[in-house]
Amino acid sequence: MTTTKRKVKSDIEIAQQSTLMPIIDIAKKIGLTEDDMESFGKYKGKISFEAIHRLKDHTQGKLILVTSINPTPAGEGKSTVTVGLGDALNQLNKKAIIAMREPSLGPTMGIKGGATGGGYSQVLPMEDINLHFTGDIHAISAANNALSALIDNHMHQGNELDIDQRRVVWKRAIDMNDRALRQIIVGLGGPVQGVPREDGFDITVASEIMAVLCLSQSIEELRSRLGKMVVAYNVSKQPVTVEDLGVEGALTLLLKDALKPNLVQTIEHSPALIHGGPFANIAHGCNSIMATKTALKLADYVVTESGFGADLGAEKFLNIKTRAADIAPDAIVLVATIRALKMHGGQGKDKLQTENLEALHRGLANLKKHMETLDQFNVPYVVAVNRFVTDSDHEIDTLMKWCENQSVKVSLTDVWAKGGQGGVDLAEKVLSEIEANKKEFTPLYELSDSLQLKIDTIAKKVYGAKEVDYTVKARKQLEQFEEQGWGVLPICMAKTQYSLSDDPSKLGRPEGFTITIRELKPKIGAGFIVALTGEVMTMPGLPKKPAAFGMNVDEAGRAIGLF
């Protein structure tokens, strides 16, 4: 076994030792002026609506989607590859912009970490982006909870809409993993305190308002989508919407600035739009359409990512976001690591530094399934092997030869250690695939298909399930939603990210399994129906030892322990 040992700095050390350019200089690199920017300090800014409107007739660039195999605790580095690929394209003198999601405080303080990349492929200022950034997620929390207050106030003040207090489906939200808030009782303390009822909290990134913001392309569309959100059912079991309450204008007011895309930069000063942050296991997992389309008008190539593996974020990008935005990817990058593949092949996390070709071979089944999934969408793709220092030469050679035997383009990337230079080979292969592409992107299902057929299609063709089982509640909801005219909407599956199945313990490529649909949730403002599988929750909990335990700040105000 051959391994290379190097003394490496932490992500935050690398970030804090990097030199940033003023954000206005980054804006000028992509054709924006100082008047086009609303600055948040020296290194962050929002692009104005006026600038976005001016760009609408510009030629659109090529879109590259980055996805991965099913994530493991070993790490895949999807965001790191996304940033590194954008930097590499710029090194090749291509005008490229990165478009990514905003991190949530819940995972940042919990176990997953942030979402700004790593090593020398990071977006900066990483401390700000991973914490409060420009306040977008806080604005979504405020709008979400304002709506909750207005619903409860409506019932308290006479309930003209005859809302059934047992059928309020709108939950409160907080941008933190807080299991104690999953189920609560509100309105206790007597008549002056409101109407007692069961309630609960979702993490903010699971709020429908987050999805609405990310799928809206203007203030007018934002207001319209907010108005369509179903918040409750009345005593006749008919849906009650935000528009029925008459508060869509107030919510839009709270969100008007959050709708503007945020501009930052990478360590190598590539422009990056970081905007919107829905989770991919419980929401649609893609950054905002506003950011993606703005980037496409400003650059020749845009590198964007979707959350978790191709079974979640990429499937939703390709079936939901493409339709809402009227865009299609020109190429896809499928990220894999030898460490993660060995975990999918049964090797324990504590033994990943040991060479194990047998575990690697077994784990390749997971990569193979995601390749088969991408084939169905008719988009060219390149496998990016994100290199770790513990990967042996034998393991690297085995994986590269396996990919070549599958007749798929593969690139060994080292962007964590080398930045854009470590992704040049990947960039060249992606460009080659785009140039040679004669395919026409095809979504997996038609919107005219029934809700059940859409769910069955995703479960069987993307996850590899043998059967799909529906609870009595879910079957009844299928009928009700079709009767409401919601059957034409796409499906947003809520499923564990760790497995192709709905059981997080089944790694690799499980076969012969059944996906259980326990409940459906109408997200009419977002424009999709959520299908909840297994035990996936919309409010995560913190681990036994949260990452927050290692965080602090020094006397100069600099963050400590933030990855």
Q: Brief description of this entry?
A:
The protein is an alpha/beta fold and 563 residues long.
Unreliably modeled segments:
none
Q: Residue-averaged pLDDT, rounded? A: 95
In terms of DSSP E residues, the strand content is 15-25%
Number of structural domains: 3
Percentage of helical residues? 25-40%
SS-based structural class? alpha/beta
CATH class of the largest domain: Alpha Beta
Alpha-carbon distance between the two ends: 29 Å
Taking the sheet with the most strands, its summary is: 12 strands, mixed
Rg computed from alpha carbons, rounded to a whole number of angstroms: 23 Å
What is the CATH H-level superfamily of the largest domain? P-loop containing nucleotide triphosphate hydrolases
**CATH fold name of the largest domain:** Rossmann fold
Q: Would you identify the CATH architecture of the largest domain?
A: 3-Layer(aba) Sandwich
